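Morning, I've got a small favour to ask if you have a moment. I've dropped the whole record in just underneath, so have a look.
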Amino acid sequence: MIKKIKEFLQGLSFKTGVIVLSLCIPFYILSFYQATFDSLSAQTKGVLWVILFGLAKTFQYGGLTILGAEGIKRLKAKFKKNKKELQ
């Protein structure tokens, strides 16, 4: 079952992997930002943190699975290229 899911995710495009991976950022931000709300009880904050942090991790690992090792190398090269252009 897990192998089938992994094979399906790896069959998706590079662009899809980047989009899925970038979706983890807002969920990480929300998971910690919700702790600043004074109107929520501690129990509600805990439940929200578990849900939002879990979604962030799911998008992170899903995106990494879609990209694979070659996709990550490609993404790093793109960032290095952009950094050199800015200098």
